[in-house]
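Amino acid chain
________________
===
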Amino acid sequence: MNQHGWGGALGVVLLLVCGTPNIAFARTTIDQKTLLSLPIQELQRQGAAALHAGDPAQAIKIFSELAARQPRDAASQTLLAFSYHLTSQTNPEAVDLALAGYDLAARAESGQFWPLALAGYAAYEQGRYDESLSYLARGLLVRPTDQQAMAVLAAAAYMSGDAGLASVA
């Protein structure tokens, strides 16, 4: 993701959504009983800390609980989807889970840029260029001046054989 500069931007989003991560706690495994007892804000902090510590498996566990408690919260669904997205290099099925989560987030709260942009990037990484174009086009309707999304849209258009769109983007 850093290839297109989205890693740093998503980090800012994570900090805005979740607050400052507690890195020390992210390095320990949270048992199910403890996980169920944590308040929502603490789940957000711990999930962000797990991502920051490079532990997407722990983040999936935490954000799954958060998304179960807040199924209509776009940020919770996006963070869970992003956690799955991070594991897609080692688990090919994870990208489908990520895309499903990004879809849920986009439907939960219309007008959200990040789920659409990240879904577009995930689809692009998998060579699903037409799907990528669809997500990115919808994301750019929300944030038309986002240069990273526009760059991936242009690349997806080129890879799908639409040189006209690629040259305009």
In short: The mean pLDDT is 84.
